[in-house]
Write a structure and sequence with these properties.
177 residues; Fumarylacetoacetate hydrolase, domain 2; 2 domains; two-stranded antiparallel ribbon; 23% helix
Length: 177
């Protein structure tokens, strides 16, 4: 199931991308008299149960035309955004960096999130703009001091419970500014 966030009258709403089009979850839930999660955060916290509830809404009603939609970031209130840098060999070559022996971690902030089709403001002083696709994994469970084996099984559990959302989105960096 593909979920999207979009904006209606200044508020972020949850949608389901279906074979019929994008379904407005709030509107479809009201029409069907169902109490369903209305935010992506509620879906992440509820996991598989939430997806089963949302699946009941996949019908050709409460549709929004793709051309009429203004997308919002996929996750609107992440607690932390932790990124892994130099995570593939060709990137280390591009940057003339050594292959790291440990993960290179850095953070981004909530206001750095951009939505699909959103225009990104570029400072006039920018000499070069760099962009790349990013893989995002949103995990709704806490973990601490887990072994490699536990981490892998936890990841699979999270994935199987659908608490995890994977998405490709763009990251734009201003170089030389």
């Amino acid at each position: 199931m593909k979920l999207v966030n979009f904006i209606v009258e200044g508020k972020t709403r949850l949608g389901i991308k279906s074979e019929y089009g994008i379904i407005d979850v709030e509107k479809a839930g009201k029409e069907a008299s169902l109490k369903v999660p209305s935010t992506i955060e509620e879906v992440i916290l509820s996991g598989g149960k939430a997806l089963l509830e949302l699946a009941q809404l996949i019908k050709p009603n409460a549709l929004i035309l793709k051309e009429d939609i203004t997308y919002a970031p996929s996750v609107t209130k992440p607690e932390k955004i932790i990124c892994v840098g130099l995570n593939y060999i060709s990137h280390t070559s591009e940057t003339n960096a050594d292959i790291p022996t440990y993960p290179v971690l850095f953070s981004k902030f909530n206001n750095s999130l951009a939505s699909h089709n959103q225009i990104i403001s570029i400072p006039e002083e920018a000499k070069k703009i760099d962009y790349e696709a990013e893989l995002v994994i949103v995990i709704g469970k806490e973990a601490s001091k887990v072994t490699k084996e536990e981490a892998l099984s936890m990841y699979l559990v999270i994935l199987l419970e659908m608490i995890c959302q994977l998405e490709i989105f763009n990251s734009a960096l201003v170089n030389g500014y």
